Amino acid sequence: AQSVTQLDSQVPVFEEAPVELRCNYSSSVSVYLFWYVQYPNQGLQLLLKYLSGSTLVESINGFEAEFNKSQTSFHLRKPSVHISDTAEYFCAVRTQGGSEKLVFGKGTKLTVNP
Amino acid sequence: EAGVAQSPRYKIIEKRQSVAFWCNPISGHATLYWYQQILGQGPKLLIQFQNNGVVDDSQLPKDRFSAERLKGVDSTLKIQPAKLEDSAVYLCASRLGGNEQFFGPGTRLTVL
């Protein structure tokens, strides 16, 4: 079975500061990795995903995440955050082949303060 | 393109009552999921449909939860009877192919 650990439940930062949201996973087989964002009172939106190829993946709004197989991590980073980035961020894994089930972490609430 | 629609957005019931949630996936999406998101936790898959067939319902509490997708389009999730611990946001998602699931806004259920 797969599991996802998001080490920080809340991350407060000031606007224009860098941020890293940590995600570690556990799986006995190869996985696909995802970051979803959930704005208040909205559903989850896919932010970025790692399927194969380059281990560094980027989103259109400046976030990036790097797949590190040896450390079983997929940390999310942004060099300079905006107030509008305030949201909850979920890391998720899915096995390659077999069940299509997404397994989510508990989420990290990012609060960007002026 | 319209997104995944869910209704109602909010529901408050008393324990032991019944409740039903409705989901209309993105047009043409064959795969439909129902997730339960308890406050402070990530979403947990309850059931997955492929067209009108169940692919995975291993985490669905079948003594009180049921779901159907009769015509392979809309889906209904029912809880009967509800317990206090069922208070959560119920998310519906759909997928056409590939790896991206598209989520609806969710139904927030409060059981008193």
What descriptive keywords fit this protein?
heterodimer, A: 114 residues, mainly beta, 6-stranded mixed sheet, 4-stranded antiparallel sheet, 12 strands, 0% helix, B: 112 residues, 7-stranded mixed sheet, globular
Question: What is the gist of this entry?
Answer:
The complex is a heterodimer of chains A (114) and B (112). Chain A has 114 residues and is mainly β.
End-to-end separation of chain B: 37 Å
Oligomer: heterodimer
Taking pLDDT < 50 over at least 5 consecutive residues as the criterion, the unreliable ranges of chain B are: none
Order of helices and strands of chain A: EEEEEEEEEEEE
Number of extended strands of chain A: 12
Rounded to an integer in angstroms, the radius of gyration calculated over CA atoms of chain A is: 14 Å
Helix content of chain B: under 10%
Structural class by secondary-structure content of chain A = mainly beta
Shape of chain B: globular
Shape field of chain A: globular
Low-confidence stretches of chain A: none
Largest interface: A-B, 25 and 22 residues
Helical run tally of chain A: 0
Tell me what portion of residues of chain A adopts beta-strand conformation.
Answer: over 45%
Description of the structure:
The complex is a heterodimer of chains A (114) and B (112). Chain A is mainly β and 114 residues long. Chain A has strands spanning 3-5, 10-14, 19-21, 24-26, 31-38, 44-50, 56-58, 64-68, 73-78, 87-95, 103-104, 108-113. In chain A, the strands form 3 sheets. In chain A, strands 2, 5, 6, 10, 11 and 12 form a 6-stranded mixed β-sheet that branches. In chain A, a hairpin with a 5-residue loop joins strand 7 (56-58) and strand 8 (64-68). In chain A, 35% of the residues are buried. Chain B is mainly beta. Chain B has strands spanning 5-7, 10-13, 19-24, 31-37, 44-50, 53-56, 65-68, 75-79, 88-95, 102-103, 107-111. Chain B is globular, with a radius of gyration of 13 Å. The N and C termini of chain B lie far apart (37 Å). The A-B interface holds A 4, 6, 9, 32, 34, 36, 41-46, 49, 51, 90, 92, 94, 99-102, 104-107 and B 3-4, 31, 40-45, 48, 55-56, 91, 93, 95, 99-101, 103-106.
